[in-house]
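Blackboard transcription, Thursday session:
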Amino acid sequence: MRETPPTAADPWDEVPGRLRARGLRWTPQRRTLLAVLAATRGHVTGAELVERCRAMDPATIPSTVYRTLDVLEELGIVRHAHGLDGREEFHVLPAADHGHIWCSGCLGTWDVHADEAAALVAVLAQRRGFRVDLSHLSVVGLCEGCAGEGQPGREAQRAG
Amino acid sequence: MRETPPTAADPWDEVPGRLRARGLRWTPQRRTLLAVLAATRGHVTGAELVERCRAMDPATIPSTVYRTLDVLEELGIVRHAHGLDGREEFHVLPAADHGHIWCSGCLGTWDVHADEAAALVAVLAQRRGFRVDLSHLSVVGLCEGCAGEGQPGREAQRAG
DNA sequence: ATTAATGCAAACGGTTTGCACTACT
DNA sequence: AGTAGTGCAAACCGTTTGCATTAAT
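(Written on the board underneath:)
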């Protein structure tokens, strides 16, 4: 997952050009968000991104961040899914296509890799002609550690 | 498997007793919600349940509905997951254990049956000791009809 | 000069909470 | 009588929107 990017050495370097190619603009605020995204591994909530942007630039305004996320999603640079609590979870596209596992006991999360989901994807494609968006896949359950202990109820998901 | 049902013919008939057994109470408001749930197939959002209760009893108060849903979830009578837009999706337990497929193009939803997810469940169990909660599974992608047409972006999920 | 993007503030929508009151047991 | 549950209203939190202003092109 590290070699031979299509055009630029760092995919992030393309972004300003891609924006301008659409008549959109490259602003300091977008620069901040892109810097945050570039430093992000895995998934982040919208609110988290706002917070991290604010750390870089205290003048960050939420609406600007969300509006830019919309644009970036149209450009195919980020995608969003939903976490256990229903909040928006963004993740950066360049990463391999994968979904997420959520433990409703400890709230931990891990990636579901394409090969693990392959059978499900294949079955749904054959039986229903359904094309799974792996990046949006959320599998909830109990991790090995939590599976042993008591039944987690709704409250477990609210803790934290 | 036909004779002597554990306690009641209709599982809903047990509810008042199960509540009282815990020192909880059977109220008209809970009666309304249970009636709505009993008439519900598939999944419903919390807001939808509030609305349907209000149809039966215009005096319905949202907080009462949500509080009762919490109780019912503790009793194992409903479970919740999250839909495409992140809202709470409740569904009634007695139904077979299944997840949901969401088409991000047309916003349609279908069930993912246990056998379709079996391979995924097995892989995650073997490789990670993870116990999948099928009722919480959300698979997003494009249905057969939508897969042919143009790329759906974030906006497709906002439409409607 | 255009017009996309920003800042701000207010709205939104679903959900939650505090508290005094009601009513189930 | 005792206490779970209700109604109400206000708070909450993440996200969205309208609009006048700013700034990238």
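Lecturer's comment: Residues 1-5, 151-160 of chain B have pLDDT under 50 and may be disordered.
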